[in-house]
Amino acid sequence: MASFRTEGVAIVTGSAGGIGLGAANALAEAGARAIIFADIDFSRARDSAEASKVLASNSEYEARAYALDVTKPKSVNEVFNKVLEEFGRLDYLVNSAGVDQVAYAPIPDNDMSDYDRVLAINATGILHCTRSAIAIMEKQEPRSITTRAGNTRELSRGVIVNVTSALSFAAVPGKVAYIASKHAALGITKATAQDMSKKKIRVNAICPSWVRTPMWAAEIEKWPAEEFMEATVPLGRPAEPEEVGESIVYLCSPASSYVNGIGLILDSGLTLTVHL
C-alpha cells in the first residue's frame, strides 16, 4: 500500500540493536531512500547498516553508519550536518537511543549519578536530536502523496518518532530514573508537536511495554518480570523489535498523516489487565 511507504531519508538513533534496529530494518523494507544507523557503538551500527541492504525495497537504498553520542550536542550536530550535506534533506527521525537504570532502588537510596545518566540519554538526548532535525526539516518542502481518489494530499516537512515506554503513563517501584526519563520523553513529544505543528512537522511517540531486547534480558535478571508478563499480558510474551519497528513505520508513513502529538501504547492489551 502506497500510504505505508516511507520513501525518504531517515536517521535512527540507537540502531545498532534492539528497537532501533527493528525500526531501521522496517523502514528499509517500507521503501526508505536512505537510513543512517546512528549509535554510540559504531562497529555494531556499521554491521547493522550493511545487513539492512538485503531488506531494502527501494532500488536506490543507501545505508550509512555514524558514531553518535546523543548526550553531546557537538556529536549530534556533526551527524545531522553530514546527513544534510550528503542527502539534502531529512524526512524521518526515530529517537530510539535509550538505557535502563543500573539497579532498582527506592527514592532515598537512588543513585543520583545514575539518575543523571539515564535522563541525559533518554530525555535530553531526544531533545538534542530533535532540535537538530527541526533545523533541517523546517527549511525543506513538504512531501505529498496521490490519494486513491487521484487527488494530491500534502504531507509533512518531516516526521519525528520518539521511542518512550508504557511507563510514560505509569510507575512501578524502584525505577524513578527510568520512569522520570520516559515521562519526560512523552512530554517532549507533546511539546514539540505543539510547537512545530504550524511548520508541518509531525511528532509522535511509540510506547511499548516489554520488548525482547538486551534491555529485556537484563530486566528479567533483576525481578520475576517474565512470570508477571505471562500472567498479565494477553499474548503472554514480550513484543519483538520488528513489531515495534512496524508500528514506527506507521507513524512515519502517509497512513498516519493526521496523527500528531500522541503516545501510541504497544502492549498486547496489558492495560486491559493492569490499570495504568
Structure commentary:
The protein is built from nine helices and nine strands. It has 276 residues and is an alpha/beta fold. The protein has a single domain, classed as Rossmann fold (3-Layer(aba) Sandwich). A seven-stranded parallel β-sheet has the order 3-2-1-4-7-8-9, with helices on both faces. A two-stranded antiparallel sheet has the order 5-6. A hairpin with a 5-residue loop joins β5 (144-146) and β6. The model has no long low-confidence stretch (mean pLDDT 92).
Brief descriptors of the model:
Rossmann fold, 276 residues
Low-pLDDT stretches: none
Largest sheet: 7 strands, parallel
The portion of residues forming beta strands comes to: 15-25%
Question: What is the global morphology?
Answer: globular
